[in-house]
Specification:
587 residues; alpha/beta; Gyrase A, domain 2; Isoleucyl-tRNA Synthetase, Domain 1; four-stranded antiparallel beta sheet; four-stranded parallel beta sheet; 21 helices; 13 strands; 53% helix; binds arginine
Length: 587
């Protein structure tokens, strides 16, 4: 038997194989779950419901299956121990021999990555984030799509996806009419080199919409500017290009600071001449119909959407968010080869994506196109202490740049307090990492579908499930190696003896759980599973380090303890990087 990377999955497949050979129904699910650690690593719960349905004794049936597993040769009993327990559970215990060999085999980032790549196995995934709207400064609302999107992208890539990040910016729509009108009446000169250009555009837009509300004359003028833009009027197209250039300069700076790597940026405007096909195909297949002058899709099988249709062409003939998204979807399939598409947005867009996915399914089925897997990864709101969406004192959304600057300033104070002798330049560097990491981690550690309350004290705390705690945990292992004068990347396995103490074994079990954590995180695309795991792993490491001295006389025991230190460090660092956080060697 080889040393499996992902024991839970391998046990599941092996049990299914044995069950099938022993007359169990093909649909039998062994239900492999984590077990009470006193009895084993995993247990199969699936015999109980089966016995109940067949009205036989569950314990006897479990024994029969366990015997068949034992004699099947699928498992080496030196590596996995099998026993029957309770009412009819089968327990699987990874022996300390298995755990030792696992740690020897999956010795660092490269080995972990190679083994993890089997999850996605080269599947082409397009991930859509952070996808902001242009002509606006980035504010606190842009934090979550960046942070969550980047973490998911990195995890998918690590797990073998052939991934493309497509930044679907909102660079087209009625707001440009309003903005261009305001620019013109104010005689504003848009200078791309002006540092405050984006802020000034935002003010102009506000002014323009206020005017349009007050006076139909302005509303009509704004609409005219939009029509001119849509018809290719050179002046308006020139302004629109400049607005987008100013936006993307500012966005790119922020992406860089946040460590985002975007592969392509095809915004809504890119699809404006690709919507005709959508109207045509959805009409000819009978999926879309005219209603009050608009082209709409009634999803009649759905309680709400049968009354609230998906509007794909507005009554004035213009395309909208729905039509460009349908055109985007087919483009990603046909031109980018997408087998899976992941959209990362705010929870308020749930209806839009549900309608998009339902419409796409009908359309693809009708045309015989192959529908990729479609996933909407949505998130809740960041709340202020008052329980409402976080705002500045004057009621404006908090600027992202200001938020990051404050995080770094606060982190610097914390670092200086912990370590008063640290040179300023080093403190600055550490503070930039700790500050952004803290913001990121506080976001990722929450279940993304919940709202959460923003708190500086909590996110910068050195204890609890925070970035400073995890960064410190990884840095501490570096310092253990530094003090011992040992290279953490040495090959400890050739000298190490098999794991022995309880603390060693619990830590090893936590490490071996990594693939299950990846699997769960991938299944739901919820990064907080990974955060919780890293936090638990740090705890298991502390318990081990408190219980067992590393620098002992016995060379074989020393080597295996160094091996545990080194593997924990790798897994913590791999995990942090996947979350978009750069680990530190010193803190
Ligand atoms: N620009 C949109 C917004 O800021 C998000 C776009 C998400 N992607 C998409 N294909 N609809 O809300």
């Amino acid at each position: 038997m080889e040393i499996w990377f992902h024991p839970a999955k391998e046990i599941d497949s092996a049990v299914r194989r044995v069950a099938a050979k022993n007359g169990f129904d093909e649909s039998f699910d062994p239900q492999i779950r984590p077990a009470d650690p006193r009895f084993g690593d995993f247990q199969a719960n699936g015999v109980l419901p089966l016995a109940k349905a067949a009205k036989t004794n569950p314990r006897a049936l479990a024994q029969k299956l366990a015997d068949a597993i034992t004699s099947s040769g699928e498992f080496d009993t030196k590596l996995v121990e099998i026993s029957v327990a309770g009412a009819g559970f089968i327990n699987f215990k990874l022996t300390r021999h298995f755990l030792t060999l696992w740690l020897e085999k999956f010795s660092g980032e490269n080995e972990l990555k190679k083994a993890s790549s089997r999850f996605y196995n080269g599947k082409r995934v397009v991930i859509d984030y952070p996808s902001p709207n242009t002509a606006k400064q980035m504010h606190v609302g842009h934090l979550r799509p960046m942070v969550i999107g980047e973490a998911i992208k990195r995890l998918l890539k690590f797990c073998g996806a052939d991934i493309i990040c497509d930044n679907h910016i909102g660079d087209w729509g009625t707001n440009f009419g309003t903005l261009i009108h305001a620019i013109k009446i104010e005689g504003y000169v848009l200078d791309p080199k002006n540092e405050n250009a984006l802020e000034e555009l935002e003010q102009l837009y506000k002014k323009g919409s206020a005017l349009a509300k007050e006076d139909v004359k302005h509303a009509d003028a704004a609409r005219e500017e939009l029509v001119k833009l849509q018809n290719g009027d050179p002046e308006n197209v020139g302004l629109w290009n400049k607005i987008n250039a100013v936006s993307s300069d500012a966005f790119n700076k922020m992406y860089k600071r946040m460590g985002l790597s975007i592969d392509i940026t095809l915004g809504e405007s890119f699809y404006r001449d690709k919507v005709e096909r959508i109207y045509k195909e959805l009409t000819e297949t009978g999926i879309a119909e005219e209603s009050l002058g608009a082209l709409v899709v009634f999803l009649r099988e759905h309680e709400r959407f049968k009354k609230q249709p998906f509007i794909i062409r507005k009554s004035d003939g213009a395309s909208n968010y729905a039509s460009t998204d349908l055109a985007t979807l087919i483009y990603r399939v046909e031109q980018l080869g997408a087998q899976e598409i992941v959209y990362v947005t705010d929870g308020r867009q749930q209806d839009h994506f549900q309608q998009l996915f339902m419409t796409a399914k009908k359309w693809f089925d009708a045309k015989g196109y192959k529908l990729p897997e479609l996933r909407h990864v949505w998130f809740g709101t960041i709340l202020g202490e008052d329980g409402k969406a976080i705002k500045t004192k004057s009621g404006e959304p908090v600027r992202l740049r200001a938020l990051l600057d404050e995080a770094c300033a606060r982190a610097r104070a914390v670092v200086k307090e912990k370590n008063p002798d640290i040179p300023d330049a080093e403190a600055d560097k550490i503070a930039e990492t700790v500050g952004t990491a803290s913001l990121r981690y506080a976001d990722l550690a929450q279940n993304r579908t919940s709202d959460y309350t923003f708190s500086w004290d909590k996110l910068l705390a050195f204890d609890g499930n925070t970035a400073p705690y995890l960064l410190y945990a990884a840095a501490r292992i570096h310092s253990i190696f530094r003090k011992a004068g040992v290279d953490p990347n040495s090959d400890f396995s050739s000298q190490a003896s098999p794991l022995e103490t309880d603390a060693e074994i619990s830590l090893a079990r936590k490490l071996v759980a990594l693939p299950s954590v990846f699997e769960n995180t991938l299944n739901e695309l919820r990064p907080h599973f990974l955060c919780a795991y890293l936090y638990e792993l740090s705890g298991a490491f502390s318990s081990f380090y408190n219980a067992d001295k590393v620098l002992v006389e016995d060379a074989a025991a020393r080597a295996r303890r160094f091996m545990l230190c080194s593997r924990t460090m790798s897994v913590l660092e791999v995990g942090l990087r996947l979350l978009g956080i750069n680990p530190l060697e010193k803190m």
